[in-house]
Amino acid sequence: MLALSTVAARPRTRRLVGGMLAAALLLFVAIALSLAVGTRDVSLGVVVDAIFAPDLTITDHTVVRDLRVPRTVIGLLAGLALGISGALMQGITRNPLADPGLLGVNAGASLFVLVGIAFFGVTAASGYVWFAFLGAAIATVVVYAIGSLGREGATAVKLALAGTALTAAFTSLITIVLLSDGDAFDRYRFWSAGSLVARGLDAALPLLPFVITGVILAVVAGRMLNALALGDDLARGLGQNLVTARVLCAVAVVMLCGTATAIAGPIVFVGLAVPHVARWFTGPDYRWIIAFSALLGPTLLVAADVIGRVVAKPGEIEAGLVVAFLGAPVLIALVRRVKLAGL
């Protein structure tokens, strides 16, 4: 029996590995386009020279190294973090519509960025980062603490309700500050649109350890999420410690969502749609869902950034707006094709 099950599993494993290679190829294409396409198109040969043999007296080399490499790296980090954190959120809450907005992450980050702008005079992206990260972390901790109250502990319904309530409260505070401070509104609206522009590597690299830590925790949590998907009672019967699993996932979500929201703004639909697309290839196994999301998330965000540069030449549209525009019909198609109760 064991031999038969092993033989039966081989075609599925080959299919999943093939899917991973295809996703990796798509990501490579998105990176190449991000470095070559824009208001000033650059050939791939010049891109390679600019990266490996730069001559800063050549304008195209300067454009690639100083402008496009930083925004591509930030798109990769933010997309990776959003894709994986979306899979974790949907797994831990057993809510197929979970995304960084569900647990109040976007609202917390937005509120604290606005506080930094309005009360501390922060104007640079490198300053927004730490306010956004702190706000995202506090929001997630508060939501989990509220959702854990009561005899049953942190259930999916209580976490969703707590996140919705906190988001409403934070959004009200944001509106009050924006209505009373026109200068803060002008600076805040650029960050809140979800853009990869004007985010230098000096703002992203200090947060790289948080992304790495979040990814490691997500990989560890994959098997736990498979148990939680069976329901709390059955997961306990299989020996799964529910508190440990939820705390581990919550910490990973703080690390990943906080970082993504900090460096790229409150981008929607990446964390929501990417895990569903991954399930088309993987089925319900969260270990593979997380792996696919790690490739599909940055592919989507970087591709959206490229599209935003092309459709509005010589200007551009923020990546967050493009993702929202593309994500809406995708989400509608997913809802029509997939039985959400089975997720």
Automatic annotation (TrEMBL):
Statement: the UniProt record of this protein carries the keyword Membrane: yes
Entry's Gene Ontology cellular component terms: plasma membrane
UniProt lineage: Bacteria, Bacillati, Actinomycetota, Actinomycetes, Micrococcales
Superkingdom of the organism of origin: Bacteria
Protein name (database record): Iron complex transport system permease protein
Organism for this UniProt entry: Glaciihabitans tibetensis
Family of this protein: Belongs to the binding-protein-dependent transport system permease family. FecCD subfamily.
Annotated InterPro entries: ABC_BtuC-like, ABC_transptr_permease_BtuC
Record's subcellular location: Cell membrane
